[in-house]
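ASSEMBLY PREDICTION REQUEST
Request ID: AP-0331
Submitted by: J.K., bench scientist
Number of chains: two
Total residues: 355
Priority: normal
Notes: Please return the full assembly, not individual chains.
Input sequences:
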Amino acid sequence: MSVNLPPFQALLDAHRADVYRFLVATAGPSDADDAFQETWIAALRAYPSLRRADNLRAWVFRIAQNKSIDAHRARGRRAVPVASVPERSEALPDEAPELWAHVRELPEKQRTAVYCRSVLGMPYEELAVLLESSEEAARRNVHEGLKRLREELADD
Amino acid sequence: MIDVERRLREAALELPGDAPAVAERADEEGLLDVAYTSVDSPLGPLVVAATPKGLVRVSYSEFRGEEDVLEELARRVSPRVLEAPARLDGVRRELDEYFDGRRQDFDTPIDWSHLAGFTREVLRATAAIRFGEVSTYAGVAEAAGSPRAVRAAGNALGANPMPVVVPCHRVLRTGGSLGGYTGGLERKEFLLRLEGMLL
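STATUS: Completed
Returned structure:
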């Protein structure tokens, strides 16, 4: 039996701003536009073959997370020396870049977990679906990520 | 201790939310199965939708909510439904001209493939009724190849997914009374008046 998927536009309208901010925060302002389009094109491609219509937000954010990771890796290949400050910032207000720069340095899953939990208030159950992990592991990723951020911000 | 979560939440409020558009790229990639937009008309706003093959839907938004119509398209045609006004520029122009009295026939292609059997035959027969002419439910049933299926023809017309362009308003009851119209009888009267078939 096929599921009743909502019109794709409804999904886009519901999550476009959140997904975009997530990508600006985790992939960086200069890669966010491309990652955003890649996310939604990939989602649109796979959409009709979805077997379930629940957890659509977690599904879209999982794709967004993968595109964010791709952007990180591509930037890694472009090999800017680690010591030099990355190209971020024109699009961001003054205080925030530091904070997001620290977020971007977290391990992949922690980065997603911290953002989705702290900013979007995502329930652990949903976060576990997003991360394809147990709820326990999702909790741990949030906890570890926040701990690390706290330490780094205290050092600044 | 630093409240990191609060700082993240506050910083997120400052992040830009104006994301780039998706529909154009979706179209380029061949993923825009159903493009829709809203078109203003003297009968109120219309939702107009097309597949790459042609028009699939025209709906009176005041009669049935846009959300409903989009859900129907997602079920009936494809869930890849996106707002993409550019893909409907041609239909929009033809509708404007029609309501302005500058056009009698629609040239925009129609995608018939999502309509089944008899309904499709009835609507094709209806599409052949010219501007300035009218037919009857019996006449359309006959033109669709089933002269006795008058009631079924009426049902098919009532479920016409492309009113105005497939002119079901030109189908009257035998004897000349107006019959029904999905979208409200006053809309049927308006269209017949526009075409000079009603004083």
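REVIEWER COMMENTS: Residues 88-94 of chain A have pLDDT under 50 and may be disordered.
SIGN-OFF: pending second reviewer
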